Amino acid sequence: MDTSNDNSPKKSALTSNAEKSSWRRHLVDQRLTMSDHEGRSDWLQRVLRVWLVERADTVIGAYWPIKGEFDVLPALFRWQEAGREGDAVEAPIQRRIGLPVMNKTDKTLQFHAWYPGCPMEPDAYGIPKPKGTEVLVPTLLFIPCVGYGPGGYRLGYGGGFYDRTLAALTPRPFTVGLGFANAFLPDLEPEPHDIPLDAILNENGVVWPTVMPSLGSRD
């Protein structure tokens, strides 16, 4: 990340909780004030739709965007609608989208069915969650990144919800981090318990583990 003309924390190996907390605050503030947030989001929507074409999943876990996070739901709704259309050869596919609901006992996340117009209610943190819909078991899970670093490692908000959830899910879903290019942290170092994401996408394409062919110029 280019930090030459901003108020970002001092560059160093991101290992301590204090350093990570400082970067979290900076990256969230940066995301909330990006003048090109809409443009970056449009490109990430496009990247995501192309990436999903080759996936056979029928149940995807996602999230309700907060604090300037990329909104994954429009692309997933289009993915769901495309499954219903089918074609002359294949029958329509029932595709499901799940949003997280926290289990208050063990602080893990369950994924409940979501659809446009779905009844919603705020969770303990004020984040909308589906109300009274069935529990789904996703085979593909999109996870928001506050930041991300080499090797597929993610910087989250520090609550550990996704770490606990992934440890409990059997089988483990394919995990994909979503974030913007300016959230890359080259000095992010994983802790011993950290497990890398299977893939990371930003508005430029697939940044982990492979590079996606160019989608065209944004100039």
Structural descriptors:
single chain, 219 residues, alpha/beta, 8-stranded mixed β-sheet, 4 helices, disordered N terminus
How would you characterize the overall build of this protein?
The structure is a single chain. By secondary structure, the protein is an alpha/beta fold. Helix content is 24%, strand content 21%. It is built from four helices and twelve strands. Strands 6-3-2-1-7-10-11-12 form an eight-stranded mixed β-sheet. Strands 4-5 form a two-stranded antiparallel ribbon. It has a two-stranded antiparallel ribbon with strand order 8-9. A hairpin with a 6-residue loop joins strand 2 (96-102) and strand 3. Helix 2 runs parallel beside helix 3. The longest helix is centred in the N-terminal third of the chain and has 16 residues, at 17-32. The radius of gyration is 18 Å and the shape is globular. 29% of the residues are buried. The model is unreliable at 1-5 (pLDDT under 50).
Q: How would you summarize this macromolecular structure in one to three sentences?
A:
The chain has 219 residues and is α/β, with parallel strands linked by helices.
Name the beta content range: 15-25%
What percentage of residues falls in helices of 4 or more residues?
A: 10-25%
Q: Structural class, from secondary structure content?
A: alpha/beta
> What is the N-to-C order of secondary-structure elements (H for helix, E for strand)?
HHEHEEEEEEEEHEEE
Topology, number of strands: 12
Mean pLDDT: 88
Distance between the termini: 20 Å
Largest pleated sheet = 8 strands, mixed
Helical segment count: 4
What would the principal axes of the Cα set say about the shape?
globular
Q: Describe the strand arrangement of the main beta sheet, using strand numbers.
A: 6-3-2-1-7-10-11-12
Radius of gyration: 18 Å
Low-confidence stretches: 1-5
